[in-house]
Amino acid sequence: MRAVRATALCVLVAGCRMVGTETHYGVSDNDMSFGEVSFVLAGEDETTVQGVPFLVVGKGTLPERYGSDISYQRLSLGEKVRLPIKVAGGSVIFYIEAGGMISYYESDAIGEPFEPEIVAGAGAQIDLGKKWSLDLGARARRPMGNGDDHEKPEHAPDGTEPEFFLGVRKDF
After folding, report:
1. Residue 108 burial by CB count (10 A; 0-12/13-18/19+): exposed, middle or buried?
2. 8: CB partners within 8 A, 6+ apart
3. For the whole model, what pTM was predicted?
4. S-S: 80 plus which of 99, 105, 122, 124, CB 3.0-4.6 Å?
């Protein structure tokens, strides 16, 4: 419900409208797999900067220093800013994006579960017709709070982690 309210507020305040939705499946270090749902917001000109609020749910295995075969679950809520670049008459869109999120890591081995993180990456959307696109890309995720290069393994996994994703986008 909070995500719906935040999205509605963003649309009202920024004068944006929702131009599409995206769903992704991704993988990262530490055997993490995740699903992501995003809402693409834009002004009248969709080729300018876009706002992308998103929700991520994932599961992985903590690094060895936490113990042997300890799993965790992740829930993240955030916002990205995206710059789309249309090529090939608009049938391919390359984009760069950056943003932030707050993540909650669930595991008995993690004493401080909340972690602010930043993300930056690039991707491509390939038009499949009827306003559907294939979306693939890569990004880097970095913790910025207590999990940032900590001495003890009591926080979320530290350091910059690569994430790779594949999904679909539906435009309206």
Report:
1. exposed
2. none
3. 0.84
4. 99
